[in-house]
Amino acid sequence: MHSLRFVAFLISAGVMAGQTSGPQFSLSNMDRNADPCVDFYQYACGNWIVSNPIPADQSRWSQFDELQERNREILREILDKASADDPKRDPVSRQIGDFYYACMDEQTINRKGLDPIRPELDRIAAMAGKGALLEELVRLQRRGSDVFFSFDSGPDFKNSNMNIAQASQGGLGLPDRDYYLKDDEKSVTLRKQYVEHMGKMFELLGESAPEAAADARAVMAIETDLAKGSLDNVTRRDPQKVYHKMTEHELFSIAPFLDWPKYFAAMGAPKIESLNVESPNFFRTVESVTVQHDFKDLQSYLRWHLVHSAAGLLPASFVNENFRFYGTLLTGQKELSARWKRCVDLTDSDLGEALGQKYVERTFGPEGKARTLKIVNEIEHAMHTDIEKLSWMTPATKQEALVKLAAVTNKIGYPDHWRDYSSVKVQRDDAVGDDQRATEFEVQRHMEKIGKPVDHKEWSMTPPTVNAYYNPLENNINFPAGILQPPFYDNKLDDAVNYGGIGAVVGHELTHGFDDEGRQFGPDGNLHDWWTPEDAKEFEKRAECFVKEYESFEPVPGVHLNGKLTLGENTADNGGLRLAFMALIDSLNGKMVAPMDGFTQPQRLFLGFGQVWCTSTRDEMARMMAQVDPHSPGKFRVNGVVSNMPEFRQAFACKVGQPMVREPACRVW
């Protein structure tokens, strides 16, 4: 899929009527000994952090992760019941139940050994030469492995109501290109560990230790070359730099290593009139890689990505070795997550809207949509007021911004029509095959979108997903089922706390439509410049303030956040809470509300926002996220925002010169 991804808030799903356990706003989470004007995050979350050590099977732990764990428990109960071999089960229950059962059946998986991927291993071994690359490339990509590159469909940036084919960079086994290129000690060590890991996986496939080590080095050389030709994460955030519409012939001229019409047909795509090539230079790199590397090394590369993509459903030796590198070494996780958790996640990933039907039936009442829509309308009204009052924006651009805001559409809860997975064959004794067939179904579904109108009712997240997002190409905000639950929304608490939680969520998503990326798209989702030059300069000047602010933050000593990578999320965090504050004040309509538990309404709003992000993270995970995650860590999502708000300064009587009073304060929206 192209690199311009929808921008997500990272929140939760799953309304539980009467639910009292799990994450929630509580004054007991606070560290009363901390000074809110020195470190508000510590003040809001200090006792929660002490009382909630990171579980051994987690690389980080937060109120967000607590909520996700509770959500998994709900899905587990649904799947445990559905997996009983009962002939009276309805078709959806039978499908998700048998899929989950096969994933959980470790005995059968261990007994089968490599049999599920043996035919593909044999095909790779039998390849006659580089001319056979196309066929195997297609087979692996249809299994979900983006060997060499990624091929998908999506809206045309400049005609967003129509889907076109999209070819993007890919083919790496490490999280990001910079893992291959940085020369600091941590990066060098991790690359050595990655090569060792690949060698161990090749040995598990039956290779001798020397042969496995040689193959691992060959794969590393190929992936390093691909990384050198890849765009960095910051560049990929700019839609102008990842939109290159080409014909088949133009793509062939830069990358003749494939018969592209034959490739497209084999992938299941219709005739391609044109496609977006995210990075033409990357495809020139792929061309060089396929020409310059030995055929045997290319076979090793294909074999590695096959076993890597299937590792989680292979025998225990593969699962454990995969976890040793990707879990322990990369993220610091101490223990492998329980199998049921992994199988719940896989079912949600592969058959998400089938599982989502059962989830919604159990957890999401009709009042959920009404509550969310009410808050959305209030926050949209606040943003309308905010735009009208901006001092730095000219009337012409303000008018365009208001037109875009009015055009934002809202999707709440779950799709109007459920996806039909009935053609996906699921067997109770074939975990790898089930995953492969579900993945091929999804790949084919995306291929069939090419050349057709965009379905604006489709969701990019499943109903149980713990998240929310804004889609710039459709100009809509999306809240999966169950967003109205603690710590984001609690009907037992006052409005101020809920505005600090769910209100800031809604404001965050709305602001994404006007961050450094979203602002480049119009009300119809098309990429076009609706800003006057002077307003664009004013925006960039204000955005640069956020870049500098967040680059000063260190999640791990010596590791700084990337202010440009996190710019969109930081803009949305700052704008979102400001809009929530405006909506709260507007809702009070001048009324004086007596303090609750010793805190005023503004103070409770800020505490509600702060406690959403109570988080502890292992150093390994913090290093990785600083490199690849567009979101700032919880501590800086909190302190970075409140330190920019005069309203916070006033609420807690902070003085100039204290850490939570940033001078100059950063603000765009």
Q: What gap, in angstroms, lies between the N and C termini?
A: 30 Å
* Main sheet summary: 4 strands, mixed
CATH class of one domain: Alpha Beta
Question: What would CATH call the homologous superfamily of one domain?
Answer: Collagenase (Catalytic Domain)
The CATH topology of one domain is given as: Collagenase (Catalytic Domain)
Report the helical percentage: 40-55%
Mean pLDDT: 94
User: Per CATH, which architecture of one domain?
Assistant: 3-Layer(aba) Sandwich
Low-confidence stretches: 1-6, 10-20
Secondary structure blueprint with pairings:
Elements: E1 7-8, H1 40-51, E2 60-62, H2 63-82, H3 91-104, H4 106-112, H5 118-125, H6 133-142, E3 149-156, E4 159-169, H7 178-181, H8 185-204, H9 209-228, H10 233-236, E5 245-246, H11 248-254, H12 260-266, E6 275-277, H13 280-292, H14 295-310, H15 316-331, H16 339-350, H17 352-363, H18 367-389, H19 395-407, E7 409-413, H20 431-447, E8 469-471, E9 476-480, H21 495-512, H22 533-551, H23 567-588, H24 601-612, E10 615-617, H25 619-628, H26 634-642, H27 646-651
Parallel strand pairs: 4-6, 7-9
Antiparallel strand pairs: 1-8, 2-10, 3-4, 5-6, 8-9
Helix pairs in contact: 1-24, 2-3, 2-16, 3-16, 3-20, 5-14, 8-9, 8-15, 9-13, 9-14, 16-17, 18-19, 18-21, 18-23, 21-23, 21-24, 23-26
